[in-house]
Amino acid sequence: MKRKNFITLLWISLATSMFFFFVFTDEKTVENFFLTVLISFMYSLVLGVGNGLINDFLNKKFPWSEATTKRAVISIVSILIANIILVYFCNYMNFVVIQKSANTAEYFSGKYNYINWFTINVALLISAFLHARGFMEELKKTSKKEVVEQKLIATSANAQFESLKNQLDPHFLFNSLNVLSSLIDENPKQAQKFTASMSKIYRYVLEQKDKELVTVEDEVEFAKTYCDLLKTRFEDSVDFVFEVNKDDLRRFVVPLSLQLLLENCIKHNFATSSKPLIIKIFSENDTLCIENNLQAREQIKESAGIGLANIVQRYSLLTKRNVFIEKSEDYFKVKLPVLSAKPNVVSIKIDDKDKSYERAKKRVKEIKSFYVNLISYCIIIPFLIIVNLITSPQNIWFYFPMLGWGIGVVAHGMSVFAIGKSWEEKKIREILEKQNKQ
């Protein structure tokens, strides 16, 4: 039990003893005052500390966040048994040991059953309050943890996406400079032409590399310009065929995907005038395909694998649709998903986080409402019982508000924690998950 809770319990004990001393004690003497304080502290410490220790133990063994239903059942059984034992012990110490108004035989004969029953009900109300507060604290921690996790996921996804996009700039520049270096030795005039065209292409790289998606039309036009550069170097050794459906031009692909795949084709295949490398770019079943006849060259050093891996990773962050790779003895083909919508990886993650936060916020509001209802019940009902016993002990009427309101509190608790819309939604999710797995 925390020190703060223990100090609060002592203050409650003192306030209770003062109330009983000035309201119920006829002889207001120092001796009676200390006796009232002693009895009040005994009840408060035994019942408060006992229930607090039980709550702490159950929090460690059966956390609310991991086994809510199981914890609720165990809590109900444990507080019933524990409070009956603790109340009988306290009343025995009070009436038999301290006040000596009865002996052991009289106490267990049934003479004090009414007092025991009343005290047990008060103890159960206090215990229910403690467990409800424990559940509330656990729910706040869990909700906060979910929001933090979603925020970390969004931040991580954003950082990963930025890292992938930042690979494009130096990758393109490095490969283009390699081509230019080769052309300077082979054909200086072509190298000059390549340099002029490269500045135009590099402008597109700088404009598009920070985007998540671009239109197929923009990407194809850029690919055609890049193919012109490749034709400048390889002439008749390489041929390009574009057969993209007009309907696909307004849809979306990841930027520079065609350029990276065209680089891969040139890098991993040899091309000669007698055996030209034929690269086709065409539409096929909601995909944009890049296919080349396979003329694999022997690799002197292992490839860094930036091109295709970059495309696959960027698509995985934007959509559930996969990049497909087909390879046979005759050809190598890559299928890029063509997307109708233009999602944003960062906004998707943040939206998920916001939705989780709103669900958690709504859940906390529901629990808070029950929490206020339970606290009000724990305060007002004992007050009504005391008023009833003082004003008209022969006419017991406190049963009606206690039972009526009590049933309402139980129904409220069941709707929030076990039965109701949340339970229905949970079962619906379970059924859908089972169907998806089949």
From TrEMBL:
<dbReference type="InterPro" id="IPR036259">
    <property type="entry name" value="MFS_trans_sf"/>
</dbReference>
<dbReference type="Pfam" id="PF13239">
    <property type="entry name" value="2TM"/>
</dbReference>
<keyword id="KW-1133">Transmembrane helix</keyword>
<keyword id="KW-0808">Transferase</keyword>
<dbReference type="GO" id="GO:0016020">
    <property type="term" value="C:membrane"/>
</dbReference>
<dbReference type="InterPro" id="IPR010559">
    <property type="entry name" value="Sig_transdc_His_kin_internal"/>
</dbReference>
<feature type="transmembrane region" description="Helical">
    <location>
        <begin position="396"/>
        <end position="419"/>
    </location>
</feature>
<keyword id="KW-0472">Membrane</keyword>
<feature type="transmembrane region" description="Helical">
    <location>
        <begin position="7"/>
        <end position="24"/>
    </location>
</feature>
<feature type="transmembrane region" description="Helical">
    <location>
        <begin position="72"/>
        <end position="94"/>
    </location>
</feature>
<feature type="domain" description="Signal transduction histidine kinase internal region">
    <location>
        <begin position="159"/>
        <end position="237"/>
    </location>
</feature>
<dbReference type="InterPro" id="IPR050640">
    <property type="entry name" value="Bact_2-comp_sensor_kinase"/>
</dbReference>
<feature type="domain" description="2TM">
    <location>
        <begin position="358"/>
        <end position="432"/>
    </location>
</feature>
<feature type="transmembrane region" description="Helical">
    <location>
        <begin position="30"/>
        <end position="51"/>
    </location>
</feature>
<keyword id="KW-0812">Transmembrane</keyword>
<dbReference type="GO" id="GO:0000155">
    <property type="term" value="F:phosphorelay sensor kinase activity"/>
</dbReference>
<keyword id="KW-0418">Kinase</keyword>
<protein>
    <submittedName>
        <fullName>Histidine kinase</fullName>
    </submittedName>
</protein>
<feature type="transmembrane region" description="Helical">
    <location>
        <begin position="114"/>
        <end position="135"/>
    </location>
</feature>
<dbReference type="Pfam" id="PF06580">
    <property type="entry name" value="His_kinase"/>
</dbReference>
<feature type="transmembrane region" description="Helical">
    <location>
        <begin position="370"/>
        <end position="390"/>
    </location>
</feature>
<dbReference type="InterPro" id="IPR025698">
    <property type="entry name" value="2TM_dom"/>
</dbReference>
